[in-house]
Structure prediction request, 814 residues.
Amino acid sequence: MERRDFLKDSAGALAAFALAPLVAAAPAARPDLAVAHGASPERIVRAAVDALGGIRRFIAKGDVVVVKPNIGWDRKPEQAATTNPMVVATLVKLCLEAGAAKVKVFDRTCNDPRRCYVQSGIEAAARSAGADVSFVDERRFREVKIPNGVAIQSWPIYIDLLEADKVISAPIAKHHGLARLTLAHKNWMGVMGENRGRIHQRLDETLVDITTVIKPCFTVLDAVRILTAHGPQGGSLADVKQLDTVIAGVDQVAIDAYGTTLFGLTGADIGYIREGARRGLGVMDLARLRIQKVEA
Amino acid sequence: MLLWARRVTQGLFLLLFILLFLQTEQKGADHLGYPVKLFLDADPLLALATFLSAHTLAAGFALSLVLAALTVLLGRVFCGWACPLGTLHNLAGALRRWQGPRRVLGWFRVKYLLLVFLLAGSAVGLQLTGLFDPLSLLARHLALGPYPALNYAANGTMDAVYRIDRKALTVVAEALFGLLRKSVLAFQQPRFAQSALLTALLLAILLLNLKERRFWCRYLCPLGALLGLLGRRALLRRETAEGCNACGVCDRNCQGGLRALAENGWIGSECLYCMACDDACPKNAVSFGFRTGPAAALDLGRRRVLLAGGAGFAAVAVSRATPDFGDRANPELIRPPGARSEPEFLARCVKCGECMKVCTTNGLQPTFLEAGPEGIWSPMLVPTRGYCEFSCTLCGQVCPTGAIRPLAPAEKAQWRIGTAMFDRGRCLPHAHATPCIVCEEVCPTPAKAIWFEEVVVKDRDGRPVTVKQPHVDLKLCIGCGICEAKCPISDRPAVHVTSIGETRSRKNQMLLDNSPYG
Prediction:
C-alpha cells in the first residue's frame, strides 16, 4: 500500500488545502487554532473540531485513520501523564461518524505496554468507541528517509502509521525535564522504532526532523489536565492542573506555541518550537494566528 | 473403564495446571484474577517445610490440609490421578513399550530419606524442599526452561515466515500467530539465565521413566513420600479375591513398581492408585475397596533415618560457610519488592519460579550462587534484563510462601530494593559533553529521584556546551533500575543499581537517616 497524506511533500499538502474550500464554506473565517473550554472532554473536542471546519474537512468516507495518543506511561488519567481517554474516544467516534472504515489506536510505550494501555484508560475507552486498539509489533517498522533531516537522515517508523490514509495526533500537554515541555512534536516519538533514547542527544533537531515526514491532518492537544512539574511521568496529583481545555489545529508549531502559554511560557522558550518555526514548518508567533476560543 | 476415568482426570488436572501457568502473566490490571498458585497452595509438603523453616503458615495452609486429609482417607490418589508432574511421567513412560517380566530397582526408601533430609534442614532454616517438591519443580522448570524455548521456536518461525513476505502466506501465518499469542505464547519473549540447564534437568527427570515407569514417583519424590506416610493406613485398599490364578498381569502393570502379587506385596504407601491392576486383571479378581485393619510396615532403618536427618542439619552449616553469609550483602543480589530480610527470605522461598514467570519486564532472573548454594534459583532483579515496574506488585501476589510479601500500591511506591549510582566516566553529559538525561525522564518516583544540574562544559575544541548532568537523590531512589535499563549505553550502563539501602535489610544501609540510630 502506498503511503499517503502524511508523507506528502509540502506541495501535496497545499493542494489538499486548496481543495478544502470545495467542501467547507468561507475558508477565510476558519481559525488556525480552535481553543475549546468546558467541563466535558467529549463536548470540547467536538466543539474544537467543529470550529476548525468539522471532521468531514479532514476525514473522508472509507479512510483508514490512525489516532495517535500518548499512552507512554503506566499512569492513571488523573495523573495527566497520558492523553485523556475521553479525548481519544471522542476523536475515534468523530472519525467513525465521518465514515472512516477503521480507526487504529496505538503507541510505543515507555513503561510496560499492557499496564500503560489498561491504566491510562485509553484502551477501554477507544475500544468501546469502536477503535482497533493494538500493541506495537516490533517487527512492523520501516525505515523512512528524512530528506531535510538535520540530526537524523532516516529512522524506522511504524508501518501502520505509514499505511494509514489519515493521521490524527492527540498528545497531552505536560512538563518534560529535557525539552521543558512535551506537546505535539514529541508525540511522534511514539511511532519511532529502535533505541529512541539516543535522540535525546539532539532532541530539538530530531523532533523537528521527524515532524517533517509525519503530517497529521490535524492535532488535538489535550489540556483537560496538564502536568506542570516532574514530567513526563509525574505521579503526584499536586503537579496536575485541571484546565478543561483542548487546542485543535493543523499547524503543529502553532499548536505547540499556544500550548506553552498554558505553562506561562512562550513558543520561543522551547527549542523544538523555535527550530520548527525557523525551518518554516509553522507559525510560532501567536499574534499572526487566528485563534478562536469556544465555550462548550 | 477405570483406566480412562483416570486418564481423563489426569488430563484435566494437567490442563488446569497449564492454564494457571499461562495466566501467571501481566495483563495490565493490578491483579491477575486467577488463583495461579492453586497447586502450590494445596501442597502439604511446601506448607510443612515453610512451617518448619519459617515458623509460619503458608498462605494456602488450609488448602494443603484438605489434600493431607484426603490422603489419610484415600492414600496417594493425588499421585495417580492429579499430580501434573506425575501425568508427564506417565506420558514419558509411554515412549517405551513395557513387555515381559520386569526387574525393579526397589529403591522406595530413598524418597523417605530425602524427605527426612529436607525437613531436617527446614527445621534449622534451610529451605531446600522446593528444589525437589514436584509442583514447585514443575512450575519452576517449565517457566524458566521449556516455556521460553517454546516461545522462541514460535517467534522464530513466525519471524522467518514474515520475512518471506508473501502476502497470502503472511495473512495465514499472522492469523495463526495471533491465535497462538492470545492463547499459549507469552506477551514478550521470556529469557532466563540457566534456561538450558533447567530444561535439561527436567528432561533428565522425565527420561528416568525409560528406565522404570514413574521412576521419580517411586523413588525420589519427597511429596510422594509425605503423602505415602499420611496415606499408609488409608481406608481405600487393594483387595484380591478368590479367582486369582497368579498370572502376574497386575505385577507387570503396576505403576508403583510393586510386587503386587506377592503376599504383603501391596504396600499402601507405595501404591499410586492408578488402578491399572484392577483394570488389567483377566479374572476380575483385583479391586479397590474400603477396609480397615493393620497396614504393611514401613521400615526405613533407624540408622538411615538418623543419617539423613543429620545430613539435613549439617547441610545448613555446609551451605552457609560462604562469604554470602558474611557481614556484607552481595551488591548484585537485588531481591524483589516486598522480599523479607535475606535469612527469612531464604527460609521461605521454595524457588517455584512464579515471581519470575509473572515479572512484567522479565527482570527477575534465577540466581545461581549469588545467594549461596541454598539460594539457587531464587529471584534476583537484573536491571539490564528488565527493571522493576513502579506500580506492579504481581511478584508478591503470586508468592506461595510469603517470601515476597504482597505490597499495597502505596507501600510499593516507597519500597527500596536497592540504590542507583552513576558511573561518571561513562555517562554522556558527565564525561562526553553530550546531552542525554533519559534516566531522569524515565525515573518513576513522583518527585524524581534522579535530578540534574545544568552545567556548561567544553567539548574537544574548547567550545562551551550546556548539558544537564544527572544525580541521584539517595533518599528518593527506590532502586527500580529503569534508569539502568533505559540508559543508551546499553552494554554496561552509566548508572547501576546495587542492593545498598534495601528496605528489607537493617545492615545493608549507607545513610545515617536509614540506620536504626538516625
